[in-house]
Amino acid sequence: MLPTRWSVAAAAAIVSFASASGRGLAQSRLPSESMTAAIDAYVRPYVETNNFSGQLVVMRSGRVLYERSLGWADREARTPMTRETELHIASISTQFTSAAIMRLIDSGALTLDTRVAEIVPDVRGGNLITIRNLLEQRSGLSDINSRADYSAILQAHQTPATLVGYIARDTLRFAPGSKYMHEEHSANNLLALIIEKKSGQSFARALERLVFAPLAMTHSSIDDDAPVRGAEVALGHDPKGVFELAATTPIHWSAKSGNASVRSTAIDQSHWVQQLFHGHYLQEATRAAIVDSASFPFGYGWFRRPNKRFGEFAYSMSGRSPGFASYVIHLPREDLTVVALSNIYSSATADIALDIAAIALGLPYAPAVLSRHGFSPDSLKLSGERFTFPADFYQPNATLAFEMENGEMFLRWPSHDRSPVIPIDRDHAIDRAYWEPIEIRRDALGRATSISYDRFQGTRTDSAGARAADAAPPQ
Which segments of 250-386 does DSSP mark as H helices, in order? Predict the structure, then answer.
């Protein structure tokens, strides 16, 4: 399919492409039976090509309009996904870390202006950093995920205290409150430690008491590496080649305390959103800080900004962590929430959730054209071609190379990581690992002269010795 980012940034181009390829855009508001059939038909190609496995929920005004559990919770054991299967939701976890902090504020244990040094005195700059700075990702803390030894950190049991210890003495990157830096993983590790200190309980027990139990989220929990008893838990998978999957390398989820350690279900997530916007879980002042549409575009575990596609202000959050991906969007004017949780490491969940929201509202969407028997990778005529991107790319001046292996196309990054490339037609493809659109521009002889990757433009580089920056794939 053509990813949703294209339909937002260049709607006319997508309509033109869809029409030329015989795939029209659905536009009419559908009755519930037709909506269910349309969503089922839309998501089927993702499941059949191993690009989605998990749970989907559409909720409107507190009523579930659509719910599906698709694929396998454990592929090797052939255990089906169910509505009770808990999946890691990655960065969406920050919503619940924030909720626990706000409950502590409601109880009088904290304020948004409490200084970190009052609770965790050994953090450099803690006398300047407030709880508000941490919640809004404006603390200036050094980010643990950027450490050279981060892979090793993920392979050992951690606690919020040990995680904060890795960055506690680092110099602040900027004055707290002066900038926004998405995503401050260390800020959420520190919030988890503050929750422990103020609640007198472990982070896992505190979240159960402060968040999951009051909201009746009976299939949500913190993964702190403790043995799982009685819960169905999905195993994560990573893309392998263009269409296959492999079990992801296990990590210690305790190493993501506060920023990505929550397991949940799509139905629990949708009920949480309903309670946040319409319930009384939080006092009005603390709830208002989370849903404040006039504040910074990111905070409290949400992106908060106008959405051109839906013509209204939207609240959304995505997450990816080893073996898992997730996305949630809430449209307050329509009172519509869509949740997509997957145990496949692919950002396709964002496109899926956004297109399903469009289907539910009768708005244009591009049906998926993914197929195991679709366009041939060698027809792209990109094997051996290299493209250099400018200084504003994910990593400045990086050169990316296309390679063929066993009949499949891969995009090699300067870090030597490789992304499988799904061909859509002669001039369009998708980076499977990051679900980014690739568009190819050619000269009169049909040779590729440039490509676009997401919003960036890369020019063909003929010299095999072209400088390749030490870049990593986009996050």
Answer: 266-278, 284-291, 348-361
Return the number of other C-beta atoms located less than 10 Å from residue 233's C-beta.
Answer: 15
pLDDT tens digits for range 117-127: 999 999 999 99
Q: Do 332 and 248 lie in a common domain?
A: yes
CATH number at residue 385: 2.40.128.50
Tell me if residue 41 falls in helix, strand or coil: helix
Asked whether residue 229 falls in the same domain as residue 184, the answer is: yes
Evaluate whether 315 touches 291 at the Cβ level (below 8 Å): yes
Cβ atoms of residues 370 and 46 within 8 Å: yes
Task: Give all strands (DSSP E) within 47-132, no chain letters.
Answer: 54-60, 63-70, 72-74, 79-80, 87-88
The CA-atom distances, in angstroms, between 170 and each of 174, 185, 190 are: 12, 14, 14
Same domain for 160 and 261, yes or no, is yes
Helices (H), 170-232: 185-199, 203-207
- As a whole number of angstroms, the distance between CA 456 and CA 426 comes to 19
Three-state SS for 101? helix
Residue that finishes a domain, picked among 361, 391, 407: 361
Same domain, 302 and 421: no
pLDDT in tens, 415-446: 888 999 999 999 999 999 889 999 999 999 99
Domain-located, residue 16: no
